Amino acid sequence: MKTSLSPEKAFQKIKHYCAYQERNHYEVREKLYGMGLFKKEVETLITRLIEEDYLNEARYAIQFAGGHFRLKKWGKIKIRFELQQKGVSDYNIKAALKEINEADYLQVLSKLALEKWASLKAESPAGRHARTTAFLLRKGYENNLIQEVIAAIY
């Protein structure tokens, strides 16, 4: 049987958890429940974390969007979906997506399209077009931007 921590001990642990890396409310809530705390205690601790600025959904969303764009080359559609899955508010999602530089976004999209297009040498032009489009859609880029970029290559 799992023993539960006192709210004060749990607060010390969760402070460290939030200080180590940006977290969203859902992750923190689940972690606190995993420590054996009850709903009222969990909500009290989350309020304290927000007040002491260990937990900030806007900061989390900006960090998540920027990181996944830079490191994983995700498009805005996929980033939006993932943030929605994590329970982040629409307001914070929109603010985070605005932080992505539009010129960088188009540059990354073009680079991904060129790399994918070049890797499909054996395909017919129509096949290259279809597979490159599908790849970029899976990465979460907008269809109209994909078509513009592929038209420039094609």
Properties at a glance:
mainly alpha; 154 residues; Arc Repressor Mutant, subunit A; 9 helices; 3 domains
How would you briefly describe this protein structure?
The protein has 154 residues and is mostly helical. It is 75% helix and 0% strand. It folds into 3 domains: 7-51, Arc Repressor Mutant, subunit A, CATH 1.10.10; 57-98; 102-153.
- What is the approximate shape? elongated
- Percent in helix: over 70%
Global mean pLDDT: 94
Overall tally of domains:
3
End-to-end gap:
63 Å
Number-wise, the strands total 0
What is the CA-atom radius of gyration, in angstroms? 21 Å
Number of helices: 9
Strand percentage: under 5%
The residue ranges in which pLDDT falls below 50 over 5 or more consecutive positions are: none
Order of helices and strands: HHHHHHHHH
Largest beta-sheet details: none
Q: What structural class results from the helix and strand content? A: mainly alpha
The quaternary state of the protein chains shown equals single chain
GO cellular component, one term: cytoplasm
Keywords: Cytoplasm
InterPro entries: RecX_HTH_2nd, RecX_HTH_3rd, Regulatory_RecX, WH-like_DNA-bd_sf
Domain RecX second three-helical: 56-97
